[in-house]
Design brief:
mainly alpha; 4 helices; 78% helix
């Protein structure tokens, strides 16, 4: 097996892992929502969104790692580097948006609130009284 083939197989395995994280996380979140509905629990929608968001965030992080490995180890050209930059930019924006949705505050506000000890406005993550 050549170096290129090894990298291609490794990157493909990482991409499968990233996709699996999203799929399995979504299935688990859906199953928990169904169980919650059957038990008459409150805030099912909020918990479902939070759990789905976490699954997507994890999957995106893994997929970005695969893109970085492929670009840096095999296809280090200006075009591939620009493509990687665009992919990372898009996935970073998605991750940032999802994290803000999950936590209820942007990351820079959350850090200030934690340092000051001030409670923040309850967002989707803690609408049911639990921190994410």
């Amino acid at each position: 097996m050549t170096y290129r083939e090894l990298i291609d197989v490794s990157v493909e395995a990482i991409e499968i892992l990233g996709s699996a994280a999203i799929i399995v996380g979504g299935l688990i979140a859906g199953a928990r929502a169904i169980v919650g509905l059957a038990r008459g629990a409150d805030q099912i929608y909020t918990r479902l969104r939070r759990e789905l968001g976490h699954a997507v965030l994890l999957g995106l992080e893994i997929l970005v790692a695969a893109d970085i490995i492929l670009t840096v180890t095999v296809e280090l050209t200006l075009q591939s580097l620009l493509g990687l930059g665009l992919l990372v930019l898009i996935r970073t924006f998605l991750s940032f948006s999802l994290e803000t949705e999950i936590e209820g505050v942007p990351p820079w506000r959350r850090a200030r609130l934690v340092r000051s000890g001030a409670p923040h406005e309850p967002g989707p993550a803690d609408a049911n009284g639990a921190a994410a």
